[in-house]
Amino acid sequence: MKLLSPTLLAIAVACFALPAAAQSAGDWTLAIGAGHVNPKSDNGSLADGTLDVDIGSSTRPTIALEYFIRDGLGIEVLAATPFSHEIDIDGMGKVGSTKHLPPTVSLQYHFNRDGKVRPLLGLGVNYTTFFSEGTTGALAGSDLSLGDSWGVAAHAGLDFDVGERGAFRVDVRWMDIDSDVKLDGAKLGTANIDPLVFGASYVIRF
């Protein structure tokens, strides 16, 4: 028993540590959840500073696929169903709406690979395309257009182990999104959206 007990203890420790094999080179993970896009409070002014713009928030399902090129170091591609936003102008109320898709590619590092709780940090590039713009209220009948945007994206999160191959993730992203706004073909200015994106998802390794 004196020889057997350390052996059993070693096996138990090894089994307990099994989830730490996650995030090794060659692994893939898939995260399915939801993201809440919350544009910054000041979205800039149009028409030479005379029209202050406010873009509303939106929550939609998200999916992220990550491939680990090294232990703890992965390349992630984030996608989502279209987010919908209301557009208000101070003093005029709701004047329009738009939808957008924000595919994002990030290089990110996962810390504490041997732990049950693992922080991550990422940095990448975001491409945002706007579509289905509409007008209402004071701008009803006008043709509203928001230009696509390229910008930096930052990512931070925490993974909490759930079983051997699963984890629950909470995260936040910041995206640099600036869109040129046109009304009936005339440029009005730039909307500075720059949202924080709060997310929650279930992550599975395969």
Q: What order do the helices and strands come in, and which of them pair?
A:
Elements: H1 4-16, E1 28-38, E2 45-46, E3 51-55, E4 58-70, E5 73-80, E6 83-89, E7 93-101, E8 104-110, E9 117-135, E10 144-146, E11 149-162, E12 166-175, E13 178-183, E14 186-192, E15 196-205
Antiparallel strand pairs: 1-4, 1-15, 2-3, 3-6, 4-5, 5-8, 6-7, 7-9, 8-9, 9-11, 10-13, 11-12, 12-15, 13-14
Account of the protein in words:
The chain is mostly beta strands and 206 residues long. Helices cover 6% and strands 64% of the residues. The chain is built from 1 helix and 15 strands; from the N terminus they run αβββββββββββββββ. The protein has one helix at 4-16, and strands at 28-38, 45-46, 51-55, 58-70, 73-80, 83-89, 93-101, 104-110, 117-135, 144-146, 149-162, 166-175, 178-183, 186-192, 196-205. The strands form 2 sheets. The protein has an 8-stranded antiparallel barrel. Strand 2 and strand 3 form a beta hairpin. The two termini are 38 Å apart.
